[in-house]
Design a protein that fits this description.
Elements: E1 9-12, E2 19-20, E3 23-24, H1 28-37, E4 41-45, H2 53-62, E5 72-73, H3 75-85, E6 91-95, H4 98-106, E7 110-112, H5 123-130, E8 136-141, H6 149-159, E9 165-168, E10 174-178, E11 181-184, H7 187-195, E12 204-205, H8 211-220, E13 229-233, H9 236-246, E14 249-253, H10 260-264, E15 275-277, H11 282-289
Parallel strand pairs: 1-4, 1-13, 4-5, 6-7, 6-8, 8-9, 9-12, 13-14, 14-15
Antiparallel strand pairs: 2-3, 10-11
Helix pairs in contact: 1-11, 3-8
Length: about 290
């Protein structure tokens, strides 16, 4: 009972927590509904901006849970919140998916992207194309499934301007496909861009595990006490690290990218979960027992 009374808001990752790969995590819908019936607010915090909102809605409702768009946050949603909050005015260069860039444009921002498609293998022509002198004042580095070296050069050139800042979205080091197989995430690519920033510049990180994302969430949901939030995730280096960075309570679930053995072998003392469970579905059993 003390545990359930220790938080008002449940923020949960999606991939690996309420579904994993192409399958569902059994009993998730009932658990999410039980949490809301107990008066807890459930917020979905994903690092995946490549999935349209309608797809999140469809997947969550298929689980039998309720979906409200205002309770979904992924990096591009957080980025738009930040731009609105800071009253940003200016031209943006974004390497991200078409879906994510369209969200920026729909929010009223002027966005450059590309080059797209096959790039001619000629250094002089590429440099002439990307060194266009456009008055870009913000570069957004997000998950881009069509990333190429020309986009990296273009972003780097814009960021040399003293008034051009960098916002980073999804910042996963590895992305699990199964518990035994993972692939590189966006972080290794973005780290190259961060490493080339002029002295004195730092990126604003609005994806997990960035502290800046935590500030957006606290403001968006009018949360006064970090400790009244329970963050549920399946990855130590992304979800649990984020909760630790921000000051949220954390619950690691073993339904996604981490096994119990790997959890116990974790050596990162800055990313130790407060609790762990087999699945977020265990909330149903816990609530019924109260």
């Amino acid at each position: 009972m003390n545990f359930m009374n220790s938080f008002d808001t449940v923020m949960t990752d999606c991939d690996g927590v309420i579904w994993f790969g192409l399958g569902e995590v059994p009993g998730v819908g009932a658990a999410l509904n039980a949490l809301e019936e107990c008066g807890k607010r459930v917020v979905y915090v994903s690092n995946n901006s490549t999935r349209p909102t309608k797809d999140y809605k469809k997947k969550i409702e298929k689980l039998g849970a309720k979906f409200q768009e205002e309770n979904l946050v992924h990096p591009m949603v957080a980025i738009i919140d930040y731009l609105n909050k800071t009253n940003f005015k200016g031209l943006i260069y974004s390497f991200a998916t078409e879906c994510a860039n369209n969200l920026l444009r729909e929010a009223g921002y002027e966005v450059l992207d590309g080059p797209v498609g096959k790039v001619e293998e000629n250094h002089e022509k590429i440099l002439k194309s990307v060194n266009d002198g456009a008055p870009v004042r913000l570069v957004i580095a997000e998950s881009d499934l069509n990333f190429n070296l020309a986009k990296f050069w273009r972003a780097d050139i814009y960021l040399k301007h003293p008034e051009c800042d960098l916002i980073v979205g999804a910042y996963d080091r590895r992305i699990p496909v199964t518990q035994d197989f993972d692939i590189p995430g966006q972080a290794p690519i973005i780290n190259c861009l961060v490493g080339s920033l002029p002295a004195g510049k730092r990126p604003i990180i609005l994806g997990k595990p960035g502290v800046d994302l935590g500030e957006i969430l606290m403001s968006r949901y009018n949360i006064k006490d970090h400790k009244r939030v329970l963050f549920v995730g399946d990855l130590i280096c992304t979800d649990i690290k984020f909760a630790s960075n921000v000051g949220f309570q954390s619950l690691l679930v073993l339904s996604g990218g981490i096994t119990r053995e790997r959890m116990l072998a974790n050596k990162d003392t800055t990313a130790i979960p407060n609790y762990y469970a087999d699945s977020i579905s265990d909330f149903t059993t816990l609530i019924r027992s109260l």
